[in-house]
Amino acid sequence: MSAKRTAHIISHTHWDREWYLPYEKHHVRLVKLVDTLLDKLDNDPNYRSFYLDGQTIILEDYLQVRPDQKGKLEKYIQDGRIIIGPWYILQDAFLTSGEANVRNMQIGHQDASKYGSVAKIGYFPDTFGLVGQTPQLMQQSGITNAFFGRGVKPTGFNNTVSDSDYESSFSELMWEGPDGSKVLGILFANWYSNGNEVPVDLEEAKAYWERKLSDAEKYASTSELLFMNGCDHQPIQLDLPEAIETARELHPDTVFIHSNFNDYLQSVQRSLKHELSTVKGELRSQRTDGWSTLVNTASARVYLKQMNQLGQAMLEKVAEPLAAFAHTLGVGEKYPHHLFTYAWKTLMQNHPHDSICGCSVDEVHREMVTRFEKSRHVAEAIVEEKSRALADAVDTSSFEGAGKDALPVVVFNTSGWERTGVVSIELDALSLYFRDGYKLEEASRLAKEADLTGRVLVDEQGTELSCTVEDLGLQFGYDLPDDKFRQPYMSRKVKLTFEAEKVPALGWKTYAWVKKESTVSQQASLITADRVMENAALKIAIADDGSFSLLDKKSGRTYRDLGVYENTGDIGNEYMYKQPDGETPRTTKGIAAQIRVLQDTAYQAAIEIIHEWVIPASADDKLDEEQRDLIYFPHRKAQRSTRMVPMTIRTVVSLSRGGKGVEIEATFNNQAKDHRLRMLFPTDLDTSVHQVDSMFEIPQRSNKPAAEWENPSNTQHQQAFVDVSEAGAGLVVANLGLNEYEVMQDGRNTIAVTLLRAVGELGDWGLFPTPEAQCLGEHTVRMEIIPYSDQAIQSAAYAEAYQFQIPWTLSQTGVHAGSIAPTYAPFEWEGGDLAFSSLKMNEGTGDLLLRWYNMRSHAAELKLHSNTPYYYFYKSTILEEHGERMDTDASGRLTLPVGRCEIVTIGVSR
To answer: Which site from 120, 471, 567, 786 is most exposed, i.e. has the minimal number of CB atoms within 10 Å?
Structure first.
């Protein structure tokens, strides 16, 4: 070389908290590693620095066992020898929500700042692909780079400009998000262990560095070469300073330094002479053979994804908005920042790629179930407290005329759009407290004898609504007051089910169950013929085999053969699906089903479909042999067993009077192994592309994979929904925690959603049996099918799909005066192309932060008005930094231009 090259050696360890060992076994090794690191820093000033894997949870995990070492940790972090942040954990990108990623960055910054400076490094060493909005999220976090190991095809060779077969000419590239945000991307082209275990011995080092330097120069655009000294759970290389001295002796033409990411980045930016390739949008390894993209982790242990979807929704879409409402309106106790941080941290401990992806040993995922429950229980406790406090502050005096027996109910809509839907609540129709002198027998008798007849449901204007009442009988209950001992009681409970109409966005509406003779004439049934349901917008007809057709009355389009089940073998592993060679998929098409009307009310109809199916019990014996021989999964020859087991599937297809889509709930008891179950939705729409919900974005993807793709399966990641459309018609399939789909190349553009994937091994670098990944037992899945005409956004199909993710909240209260109107929304907003994402409070400022993102790739406009006692608006970032005050019109309404695909956060300050 004419000019000197520099070898930047960065010490690190990639620390999967749990994976092929349970968490605590990795935890023990972590404590030993950090102890060793601190001792090394104490005793060797030549060991310059160590990057702690970009996740501050390592500090928590270590100090949980070694609290006595906190002072020493703080010293070396402040000295810049241990580098921490910016994340709380290293999360999977496609299986965690946008808000979860924002909280991850916020909490990582908060925790790191307590020790010193935060590393502004966009660190994604082993993330299984990266979402398109990552550059914007980095820029809004003050980060101008992204280091990653997956998602881009390996680069061109020998610093030549690549042809169309490559996505980047070099390991350095410009990565551009859909909004135009750019970051410097650094691909670990030779992986994040390419500088691992550097030899001290002269002969070993000679061979090592000849190979390593050549490999790095093959991809690098400058003479600044990156060598990552560490790997998964890699112990610290204690003799690295000596190994660097050996390297300097061998290669005087090369500057070897024990470096860090900041120094490396500055050197690269100074040395850039080539124009770097620009890679746009999602990094999903689409320009590969398709066998090692790890996309099928989206369907490994589906039950985990379902728990995660619910846990995220309860925190970001229900608990945080309700707590913000209550605090803003001066109702109840203060915003519980400490509880939210605890709940988010507990949830995010399940978000690393080896955790949420379902690709670890069974012990790991058992512990995850407990964490999901713990986080959700905290969220539920906040929701119960805040919704009750708000309901008790609502003015329900309009129901006084209905008598002392009126039972008001407040329905909360914490989504960002006005909402209509079927809701249910269990009411205490009569409560007899033991504190009032009632004996158990007397309380039970009086509750049983309570007269619940002659009641109707009314809104605040006294208008009667159709309502179904289910008498739940005598039940024990209790209160937990803040100022006295627990208060047990016996109650007579009823369950009310009705359709709540036009509940304001981010607001509520009040109803009451009152003593009154019904005067409402029965509305027409939604069951209009045998096996046919119909409302003003949709018509569903069930066929003999349980599939159904769906007519969108506005577009005139009928979608046929929806809801067929498909079953195939799976001889792959938790990472990747592999169908046995030559297998023909089994389907329920043409198999007679048992069909009956399950529900027929004025507001909702439902039809039950039972499939008594049989499928192979497992793979044949050859799979076990191939697993033990570590046969790479694409090369396996196992087939399915000839032994059959029952697969009974109960499907409920339901339609509400005001519904924009048809809801599907399927329940089955899986007793088979080594297989995949999907539900099929043929669209028969003429298009080569489709849209899909991802993090703060609805990217467009090709139906057909790239030419390099060899895998027969082209499954992909989704969050809330996938959408296939042509001019004038489209079909959205929304889901709850079903993160894998495929648009099939079958001539019908069929959307296939994976409901279950059952496998028996972890995969990757050895044989790790995972019998619990066979997912034996009961499963329930839910979807909504939403047809539309014109455009999906303008038709509110996407809004409907997003609302499907969010549970309704209802709270019982009494008849009383109150400070809050019975129908109310603290905020009102307009912006047809925008999707509402979150409402929360900042702990430091007490400001409210509201977030939207532009679903379209062109400019939009946000109009926002506050009905709360807040004084001004400002534009912020995902880190919730206070910006300059923005002007409003005479009515106090803010009008703000929003860029294409922009994530916009608005602060509301006192």
So the answer is: 471
